[in-house]
Design a protein that fits this description.
The termini are far apart. Strands 1-2 form a two-stranded antiparallel ribbon. The chain has two helices and two strands; from the N terminus they run H-E-E-H. The protein is elongated.
């Protein structure tokens, strides 16, 4: 799916099932990986706050 022309459909699909973002046929970042990275960053921020 071309995200530029079908953004609403892309959002709906991402809410219902795993989605992988590709550029020129290569995976860039999947939603699950993005969420894992966000959780990891949040944990790091929390740890830094406890040390201060």
């Amino acid at each position: 799916m071309d995200a530029k022309n079908g953004f609403e459909m892309l959002i709906d699909t991402a809410r219902a099932e795993p989605v992988v973002i590709e550029k020129h046929g290569r995976a860039v970042l999947g939603v699950e990986e993005y969420e894992r990275l966000v959780r990891s960053a949040e944990k790091q921020t929390a740890l830094k706050g406890k040390r201060a």
